[in-house]
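Long-time lurker. I teach an intro course on protein structure, and each term I like to show students one example going from raw sequence to a predicted 3D structure in token notation. This year I'd like something fresh instead of my usual example. Would anyone be willing to generate the tokens for the chain below so I can use it in lecture? Attribution to the forum is fine with me.
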Amino acid sequence: MKHAIDVPPFGELADARVLAELAAAAEERGWDGFFVWDHVAYRAPVRAVADPWVALAAVACATSRVRIGPMITPLSRRRVHKLARETVTLDVLSSGRLTLGVGLGSARNGELEPFGEVTNPRERARLLDQGLVDLVRYWAGEFQPVPVQRPRIPVWVAAEWPHRRPVRRALKWDGLFPTGVPDPPALAELTRDIGDTRSSQEPFDVVVPLAPGADPEPWARAGATWTVTDLGMQPTRAEVRRVIDSGPTRS
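-- Reply from a regular --
Happy to contribute to a lecture. Here you go:
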């Protein structure tokens, strides 16, 4: 099992220099990944929000080993051709360490309707599926340069427990990021379903968010391959640093 820090670039963390410093510390302390949320606005009391792609570029330059990426990007509010350029540029900059987390996004965070984005969940799902198809086409050589990672940049798909449609979408890609899973037995049920359904023998990640200091062992036995330490909506720089300095809890 691998372990990552997952932070919102809000408040004190809405500064790419701070995020780069924290990512470098996470790498030094033995963490395997450093991910950031992708939002253009967020519900109260959040006001300050950093752009994830600029922040991840700073993180890429401050690190050499950890996997990085947005967790997650709602493709329905992205121009996919621009996202293709951003992802490839970041994959090259990081020497092939980008993982792209994708999902529907949420209307409750105040970043869809106020900006004229699609709010209907079915239409957002359609745009997500089409966006992924288009991304692969751009990555495959329609745009140059191509990603460092071959055959392409890994894609993790978010799903909210207990919905199964996003799980079926994730099975076409490289990993599943289920949120709201109540306990390890529920995750074990989900991973059994994945094993029964997935015909490919290619590696497939199951990524679970855990509170700082939570024991990952029951989740590892249930089939998780990654944990992301979730520090909540407005962690301070000092709080994130304390979690990083404590090191990942290895299963």
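Some talking points for your students: The mean pLDDT is 94. The beta strands are 2-7, 33-36, 67-70, 73-74, 100-103, 155-160, 175-179, 205-210, 226-230.
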